[in-house]
Amino acid sequence: MDSPAFWIGYVVLIFGFMYFIAIKPQQKEKKKMQELMASIAVGDTVLTSSGFYGVIIDMTDDTVIVEFGSNKNCRIPMQKQAIVQVEKPNA
User: How far apart are CA 72 and CA 49, in angstroms?
Assistant: First the structure.
């Protein structure tokens, strides 16, 4: 148990465990969010991080204008990162 090879193996095992528990799922979630941001289009129904549902009516590179509710005057510009879920309109 006092050999250097044992301790090196132990450290490698711990880092491998941390990679699969902490880093890999985070990278997977980041990739999923990037795919979500790339799929956003005008007319999509979105859920914001604050819990509001709305429809995208205009968008630029990093911002979108979302229309909330049945009141056509309630249009709010927001960052794309505030969108957590996208529902495509049925064709």
Answer: 21
Q: Which amino acid is at 37?
A: M
For CA atoms 66, 71, 72, 73, give the dihedral sign. Answer: negative
Which residue ranges make up each domain of the chain? 1-39, 41-91
**51 φ, ψ to 5°?**
95, 10
Rounded to whole angstroms, the Cα distance separating 85 from 40 reads 10
Q: In whole angstroms, what is the distance from residue 89 CA to residue 91 CA?
A: 6
Tens-digit pLDDT profile for residues 22-60: 999 999 999 998 998 888 999 999 999 999 999 999 999
